[in-house]
């Protein structure tokens, strides 16, 4: 059960989280997108992603919650939240906390001259270059082989493949999307619509289909990110 739980958490946010951080400053340009987490046909959680831009700085706030109950015997609660600060596509700061069914985890990171310095529950050290995070909000991350887990801080060296076009069900209907698959520590399919906007993901856990599906689009992420 533990490994299955880890797989579902990783798929929900790539292992991302923020409890106790200040709210995003009121910025002129903000977009929020919401997602439902489903295991099989059952809704088991929600994720919200907010991008806010001020000049060349982009702040990304992510909040994810899981509530899983199986026959009243296995109960699992999870709250994960994360704040990232980017400038010109380069990660500047990352601060996250997670309540992993009562187990606390955290990540604190900042840009240094030769990469990104991390002090986290799962990793301490410098990740070289310009890494992505397990936040999924831009398809530009598909061009970066190194991602940082926003739950544990662990760097992931991923293989990323473009699987071509595939339909994906969302609140906007079944959308024609480009599908990407990752492997090498995070096995997930990510879907970006015809406007190159992230609309969800899917993966397998415990022999069942899990989906993160857009439930409310909001404004364009790309208009703020780029």
Strand order of the largest sheet: 8-7-6-5-4-3-2-1-16-15-14-13-12
The N- and C-terminal alpha carbons lie at a distance of 41 Å
Q: Measured on Cα atoms, how large is the radius of gyration?
A: 16 Å
- How many β strands by DSSP? 16
Helix count, per DSSP?
A: 2
Which regions have little confidence, pLDDT < 50, spanning 5+ residues? 15-27
In short:
It contains 2 helices and 16 strands. It has 226 residues and is mainly beta.
Characteristic terms for this protein:
16 strands; three-stranded mixed sheet; 226 residues
Could you please describe the fold and organization of this structure?
The chain is mainly beta and 226 residues long. The protein has two helices and 16 strands. The strands form two sheets. The protein has a 13-stranded antiparallel sheet, with helices on one face. A three-stranded mixed sheet has the order 9-10-11, with no helix packed on it. A hairpin with a 2-residue loop joins β15 (198-205) and β16 (208-216). The longest helix is centred in the first third of the chain and has 12 residues, at 2-13. It is globular, with a radius of gyration of 16 Å. The N and C termini lie far apart (41 Å).
């Amino acid at each position: 059960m533990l490994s299955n739980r880890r797989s579902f958490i990783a798929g929900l946010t790539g292992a991302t989280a923020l409890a106790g951080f200040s709210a995003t400053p009121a910025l002129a340009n903000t977009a929020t997108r919401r997602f439902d987490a489903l295991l099989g046909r059952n809704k088991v959680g929600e994720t919200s992603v907010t991008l806010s831009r001020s000049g060349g700085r982009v702040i990304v706030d992510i909040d994810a919650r899981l509530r899983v109950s199986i026959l009243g015997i296995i109960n699992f609660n999870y709250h994960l939240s994360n704040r990232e600060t980017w400038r010109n596509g380069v990660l500047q700061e990352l601060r996250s906390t997670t309540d992993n069914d009562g187990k606390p985890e955290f990540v604190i990171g900042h840009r240094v001259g030769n990469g990104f310095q991390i002090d986290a529950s799962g990793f301490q050290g410098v990740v070289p270059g310009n890494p992505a995070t397990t936040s999924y909000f831009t398809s530009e991350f598909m061009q970066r082989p190194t991602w940082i887990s926003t739950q544990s801080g662990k760097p992931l060296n991923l293989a990323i493949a473009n699987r071509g076009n595939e339909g994906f069900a969302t609140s906007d209907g079944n959308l024609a999307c480009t599908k990407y698959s990752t492997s090498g520590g995070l096995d997930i399919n990510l879907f970006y619509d015809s406007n190159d906007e992230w609309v969800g993901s899917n993966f397998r856990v415990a022999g069942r289909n899990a989906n993160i599906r857009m439930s409310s689009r909001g404004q364009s992420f790309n208009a703020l990110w780029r």
